[in-house]
Structures
1.
Amino acid sequence: MATATATIEAPAGEAAAATTDTVIRFRDITKTYYIGDITVPALRGVSLDIKRGELVAIMGPSGSGKSTLMNIIGCLDQPTSGDYALDGEQIGELGDDELAEIRNKKIGFVFQQFNLLARTNALEQVELPLVYAGVADRRERAQAALEAVGLGDRLDHKPTELSGGQQQRVAIARALVNDPAILLADEPTGALDTTTAGEIMAILQRLNREQNLTVILVTHEQEIAEYTKRIVHMRDGIISADEVVANQRLAQASAAAASE
Ligand SMILES: Nc1ncnc2c1ncn2[C@@H]1O[C@H](COP(=O)(O)OP(=O)(O)O)[C@@H](O)[C@H]1O
Ligand SMILES: [Mg+2]
C-alpha cells in the first residue's frame, strides 16, 4: 500500500517547483536603523499577506516606512526581526549571494526617476538583466518586452530621445523581461504629468489583469492609489489601515500610447 501511494505522488522536483498563492508573507517585521547613539524604528511590527495577482498601493506620510517596507519586500535589505517568506521561501535564512539571486529571479523594480543608463538604447537597457542572468535569446525577449509596453518602434532610442512616460515604459520592460513574480514600484508616476501617469497605470493594470502579475506600488496620490485594488496605509512604521478599493478606476491608454 505504501508503495502504491508513493507511485502517485508528484516527483520531488515538481513539488518544489509548485508556487504558493501567497507571494508576500510578513510576520511582525521590524526594522531599526542605528545612527550613532540614535535609534530609528522605521518598521515597528508589520504583518502583511499579499497574494499572487494582487495590485496594491502603499500610502502614508513621508517617513512612515514605505521605502523601508519596499526594500525589505525586494530583498534589498533584511528586517531586524520577524519572518518574511517570499513565494514560499524564508528570506531571513539567506545570505547576501542568495538574496541577490532571489532579487534577480523574482523581483522587478521600477523607480520614480526611471534609472536608465544615459547612453544606452531601449533594447540594450532591457537586455541587461538577461545578460546578468546568462540568458541566450536576449534580443528576442527584450524586443517582446518592449512591444508589450507599446515601444516596439523605439528599440534604438536613447533616454534623451524618449518622453518621460516612454522612459518609464522602458524601465517597466526592463523590470519584467526576467519574468519576475512581483513588480515593485516606488512612486512610479511621481515624475510624470497626470495623463502620462494614467498611461503608466493602464500598463500596470493590463499586466496585472492579463499576466496575473503581482504589482506593489508606493504612491502619495489618492488618484493613483484608486487604480489599484487594495490600499495599505502606513503610519509611524506600522500598518494603520488596509482597505479594498471599492470602485477601482480603470486607466485608459491614450490613443498615442496605444498606437506606438
Ligand atoms: N538608511 C537609513 N538610515 C537611517 N534611518 C533611515 C534610513 N532609511 C530610512 N530611515 C528612517 O526610517 C524612517 C522611515 O523611512 P522611509 O522608509 O524612507 O519612509 P518613507 O518612504 O515612508 O518616506 C524615517 O524616519 C527615516 O528617516
Ligand atoms: Mg520613501
Note: The radius of gyration is 20 Å.
2.
Amino acid sequence: MIKEMLVVGAGPAGTTAALQSRKLDKRAKVTLLTEEPHPEYSRCGLPYVVSGVVSSLESLISHPPEFYERTSRIKLMLHTRAYEIDPKGKTVSARNLKTGNEDSLHYDSLILACGGRPVLPPIRGVDKEGVFAVRTIENVRSLLDHLKMVTVKSAVIIGAGLVGMEMSEALIKKGLKVTVVEILPEILQSLLDPDMAAVVRERAEQAGVKILTDAVVEEIFGDERVKGVKVSTGEIETETVVVAAKVKPNADLAERSGIRIGKTGAIDVDEYMRTSVEAIYAAGDCVETRDVVSGRKTLIQLATTAVRQGLVAGANAVGGHERYLGSTGVCTTELFGIELASAGITTGIAGAVGMSPISARIAAPTRPKYFPSKSCIVKLLSNRQDERLIGVQIIGEDGVSERANLAAHAIHMQQDVNEFAKMETCYAPPVAPVWDPLFVAAQALTRKLEVEFDKRLERLALEIPVHFRSVAAEKLVEILINSPNVKRMSDEVMKRILFNWQRGALSTEYGLQVLLEAALALEPERTMSLLSERLRLYAPVLELKETRIPTQPRLLYNF
Ligand SMILES: Cc1cc2nc3c(=O)[nH]c(=O)nc-3n(C[C@H](O)[C@H](O)[C@H](O)COP(=O)(O)OP(=O)(O)OC[C@H]3O[C@@H](n4cnc5c(N)ncnc54)[C@H](O)[C@@H]3O)c2cc1C
C-alpha cells in the first residue's frame, strides 16, 4: 500500500522529517506544507544578515521550492496553514493564505513540526510601528527597511538570551546605540552561570552595548511609531524595539485535536517522537524534549535538536523504530570576538532540580606555554551525589565548540568526572597542548571532589564513637583481609595501613580514615552495610551512600 505522509511545518524539523521519510520509503506520497512563503531556511543566520556578514536574506534559504519535487518527489505547499486535524478521519484541513482556497489533506502518518513563535510582552505600545520580532525572513526584512530610515539611531532589545545578544552585536555593527533590557540578574542565564556570563557581558559593554539587568520594560511609548521605552529604571528614547524574550511552542493545532500537551506548554512526545494520538508524530520547537542530565521534560529550542528529532519522526512515520535519546542542549555562538558554548545544566538549574552541584573553573592556554597561544575559560559541573559530569560552559578564542561537543558527549554518556579527567587527547605544539583546558578543568573538579570526599571520611571517622573505634577498625581490617579484591590495593595504601597497625594507631581518627578509604574502594557494599547497621552512624553514612565510591583509594594521591 502506498503511504500518505503529511508534514506540517517546513522548518528544520519538518523538512528533515519529510526528506527522511522519502529516503526510507521510496513509494510514499510525501507532502510538506508551511504557512510561510519560503521553504526551509536558517533562522540562525538572521542576525548575520542584519549585521551585513551575510549578504542577503535569500541566501539563508537552503533550496529553491522546485528542489523538493525535483530531487525528492516531495510536494511542497507554501503559504498553506493547517488549521484543523481530524484524527479519526485522518485528515488535515488547510487554507492557502494567498488564494483563500481550502483543502482537506488525507494522511496515513502525520508529523507536526510547527516550531515556535516569539512571545511579545503584554505591555502598552507593543503593537507600535518600530517594534520587531526576529523569527522569520519577513520580520528581518521589515527591520532592515526600518533601519534604512535616516532617523533611526538607536535600538532597545528586550531579552538578553542568545538571540537578544546576537542582535545587540548586529545592531552595534550597524552603528546604532544599543541597550539590552533583561529581567533576570545576568545575561545568557539559560546557558551560563552568572560568573561566566559576566565575562561576555564585559565584552559586550566594551563594544558599546548598554546592558540593564534586573530591569523590566513597562511600556513602549510614542504615537503610531515608537519614540521610547519606559523601563523600571527610567526612560530610554529610541525608534526601534527588538523583542527577543521567549519562544512559545506552536502547540495550539495539536491541543485543539486532543493531542496531549506537557507542563511546558509544548507537545508531549515519547522517545519515538509519537504524540498521544495514533499515527501523529511531532518534532522540533513545538515539542517537549527530555533533558538527559535531569531526566525532566523541558524546552530545548535549537535547530540541532529539531533536525535530530525530525530524523526520528520521519523514519518512524514510515514504519521505522528509531529512538530519540534526549538532549544536553549543547549550543554555541560567537559574540563580540569571543566564542562561547555550553551543554548540560547550569548551577542554578542543577540546584532547582534537586542536585548538589559542585564546579571548577579554570583559565588555560589552548597551546603549549612556549607557543603563540589563545586563552580559554572552562567551567565544569558535577553532581556531588554521583560525581557524574552534568554541565560544561566554555568561553574563549578558539576551539570552544569542539570542546563543548566533547564534554556534551561525556555528559550524555553520564560519565564520571574522574574517568573523564583521565581521557587521553591529541597533542602537537601548533594545534593543542598536552593538557587541553577542558581536562585541566576536569582535573580541578576531581581534586575538589576528592577534598570533599576526604572531608566526609574525616567527619565519618570522627563521628565513630570512641568506644566503637577499635571494633570498627577490627571489622574494617576483616573486610579488607577477606576481600578477593585485596590484590588491587596499592602498595602505598597497604604501607599506610601497616604503619598505623605497627603504631597501634588503627583506631585513631586518622587510622580509621585510611581503613575506611581502602575498604570503601575495595568492598563498598560490605563497608556501607557495616557502617550503617553495626555502627549506626546514620547522618554521615547516608551522605556517603549517595556518593559513588571511588574505584581506587584516593589517599594514593595524597601521599
Ligand atoms: C535569530 C535566531 C537565531 C537562532 N540561532 C540558533 C543557533 O545558532 N543554533 C541553533 O541550534 N538554533 C538556533 N535558533 C533556533 C532554531 O532556529 C529553531 O530551534 C529551529 O528553527 C526550530 O525548528 P522547527 O522546525 O522546530 O521550527 P521552525 O523553524 O519554527 O519551523 C516551523 C515552521 O512551521 C510553520 N507552521 C507553524 N504552524 C503551522 C501551521 N499550522 N500550518 C503550516 N505551517 C505552520 C511555521 O511558520 C514555521 O515555518 C535560532 C533561532 C532564531 C530565531
Note: The first strand starts at residue 4 and ends at 8.
